[in-house]
Amino acid sequence: MDSPVVWFPQICEATCEMPRLAALDVLDSLSDEAFSKEYAARSMPFLLRLGALKFSEAEILGLLQGAYGDQTVNVRFGNMADPGSYLNRREEEMPLRNFIGEHFMQVNDAGTAYAAGTVIPVEMARDLGVSFPIFYPEYFFNEPRMWMGKKGTVTALHKDIPDNFSFAYFGAKEWLLYPPADFPYLYMIHPNPNALPDFGVSMVNAKSPDATRFPEFSKATPISITQRAGDLLYVPAGWSHFVENHEDSLMINFWLRRGRSPAVLGRDR
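C-alpha cells predicted for JmjC domain-containing protein (269 residues):
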C-alpha cells in the first residue's frame, strides 16, 4: 500500500497528551526495540551519531563529479526562506557535475542554488557509504534523495507526509523542529491541488517572522538541533521543520513509504 491518505489530525490526536520535548535526544547507539517503543511509537525525533564516514568531502566531490556526474539533479534557485519565493521558485534540471562546477564550487553563488530532493539510485547511495536506516527493511523505504547546497541555502518551514530519516554526509545544518501541537500557530497552507494531502508550507519566514501578519507564530516553540557529518536525524511524520545549511552540505534522506508511516499510528509494521 502506498496511496495518499490524510493522517495529520490523527497524529495530533495521538500525540496531544504527550509531554513537550525541551531538547532532542542525542544518541550514540539505538536498538530496534528502543527505536520502536521510545521514539517511533511516541512520535519523538532524535539525533543518532553514527561515527566516521567512508570518504572525505574532497573524495566524495570527486566521486560525484566522476562516476555520477551525469546523474540529473533538480536545482532550486532563490531565497527559499521566503515562503512566496519557495512556493514560486524557479527550478532547473542539470547534470550533477554541472551543478557542482557551476554552483556548488562557486564562492559567489552562496544561498541561491540548491540541488534539493533529487531521487538517486540506491547504488549511488551505497557507493557513498550510506545505507538504508537499520530500523526497517529496505522495502519499507522510498528511493533515497539527495540534498546538496552551499552555506546559506534553506528549505522553508513545512511539514512532510511520512517519517523521515536524514543522513548528513558533510557540512552542518540547523533544523528547527515544531511538534504537531504547534500546527495551529504555523499558518500552514496546502500549496496546490497536486500536492499530497498532508503536505503543508508555512506562510511565515521562520528566519524573520512578521509579528504583525502572523501574531500567533510566537506561540510556537521549536527545538533547534545542529546536524553534522555522520549524524542521522529522525523526523516523525507531522513534525514541521525549517532547515538552513550553516556550511556547504550534502545530505541523503530516506522517507518511509506512505503505507508504512506514520509509526505513531501503528503503521510501521
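Residues 8-265 form a domain with the Jelly Rolls fold (CATH 2.60.120.650).
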